[in-house]
Amino acid sequence: MTSNSDSGGVAEDGSCECECEYEEEFVSNSRGMKLFTCRWFPPKGETVKGQVFLCHGYAVECSVTMRGTGTRLAQAGYAVYGVDYEGHGKSEGLQGYIPSFDVLVADSDAFFTAVVASTANTDLPRFLLGESMGGAVALLLHRARPTYWTGAILVAPMCKIAEDIRPHPVVVSFLKVMTNIIPTWKIVPTADIIDAAYRMQEKRDEIRNNMYCYKGNPRLETAYELLRVSLNLENNVLAKVSLPFLIVHGGDDKVTDPAVSDLLFKSAASQDKKLNLYPGMWHALTSGETPENIHIVFQDIIAWLDERSSSTKSSAGEAVDSSTASSAGEAVDMSSEMEQKAKHDEQHDSSTKSSAGEAVDMSSEMEQKAKHDKQHDSCTKSSTEEAVDMSLEMEQKADHDEQHIDKL
């Protein structure tokens, strides 16, 4: 793993660019491929409010294209994590090739959940942030684990094919057949996405000069997978979205239709949902707009994150307070019970003492009675002996008198 400090001075829009920590490393997916990952942390000494997991768009990557997003959120107090999909950025795989969107989502899920599991505080709020195609990845990650994520930020999400460019079902069937023959061919015609997505020429030049961004025509299977996923989202996913989410979308976006975001907002089952539409802004709201516009968008994103991070901590605090109150109540009950027991024992001791006293008195009385009886027995014995002696004396006297009479 390599790490360094990602810092700057004062941005053109006047926002603070304080130093934050940046790290990057390669991890292996379930197929043994090396995937590039990167992360930004708040400046040392600052408390981490929550975790944000980046889902980048088609043909771009995290460490350069989404560097502004990572640093801004880290400076706002969030730990930010990104992974380049297979065939994107610095990860292994044929550049610009998506053999399976499901596998791409599974790779992201495996990395993100591993990060959460390895975090010391696994109760931190965790958010997804998906841009364009990454919005589709974020929605599918949510549906794979409906209650796992605290919320999601969807930046101009790709979640439906606009009606005016929806291909005929026959064309879709033909594409499917051809993907089995020439899946990696770059034969799908498309307009220059870079010019359509990024308002600022400086950003367009950065993308074109970035060797890790794919700039060729979409490969056949990639185009089919994007179409398939968009149709699946529209028909099977949008109405089931239940997590809190914020959608930010440029009013003049020519890459993903703002009406699609409105459809998601209206269709989703979530009770906590918000759609911010920015008139005049283009597709790449977080990196391709003017500095002033980017600042406005991030102010809204960070405010939304802060509100839900604080409410999550508040709920946890209420649970702790409730538990503490319950424990205190149990302690009071126990104390009361102990007091009652002490009173009972005191009464019992008093009763025992009284009984003991009565027993002692009775014993004393019995002893006195025994002495009296003994004295009485002694007296009775003495009287009997005297009676016997008197009887003998009288018999002797009678014999003497009888002898005296005989002599006369």
Structure description:
- The protein is of the alpha/beta class.
- The protein has one domain: Rossmann fold.
- Helix content is 51%, strand content 14%.
- The protein contains nine helices and nine strands.
- The chain has helices spanning 67-75, 101-118, 133-144, 169-179, 193-197, 201-209, 220-237, 258-267, 291-407, and strands spanning 2-6, 20-28, 34-41, 50-55, 78-83, 126-131, 151-155, 245-250, 273-278.
- Strands 1-2-3-5-4-6-7-8-9 form a nine-stranded mixed sheet, with helices on both faces.
- β4, α1 and β5 (78-83) form a beta-alpha-beta unit.
- α2 packs across α3 (133-144), α3 (133-144) crosses α7 (220-237) and α4 (169-179) crosses α7 (220-237).
- It is globular.
- The N and C termini lie far apart (156 Å).
